[in-house]
Amino acid sequence: MSGQGTWFRRSAYNMNRKPEAKNQREKVHNTKYRVLKNRVLYNYFVDSVVAFQGVSPRSDNHT
């Protein structure tokens, strides 16, 4: 499980080191893709934390 944390930090570190986009269209596309990927990673991270605490993230009952 600790390996996932290092992978998460490494991917975030590499994402911030990307070179400048060549044109505006590519920059907008990269920004959209980065936001989407960060949202997926964040949802996966939250689901992992919630599942680790013993609560199903997909359950309808919010206690």
Q: How is this structure best summarized?
A:
Helix content is 70%, strand content 0%. The protein is mainly α and 63 residues long. The radius of gyration is 16 Å and the shape is elongated.
The run of helices and strands is HH
Number of domains: 1
Shape: elongated
Distance between the termini: 26 Å
Radius of gyration equals 16 Å
Structural class: mainly alpha
Helix percent reads 55-70%
Q: What proportion of the residues form beta strands (DSSP E)? A: under 5%
Count of alpha and pi helical runs: 2
Arithmetic mean of pLDDT: 69
Could you please describe the fold and organization of this structure?
The protein is mostly helical and 63 residues long. The chain has one domain (2-52). The protein has 2 helices and no strands. The chain has helices at 2-16, 24-52. The longest helix has 29 residues, at 24-52. The two termini are 26 Å apart.
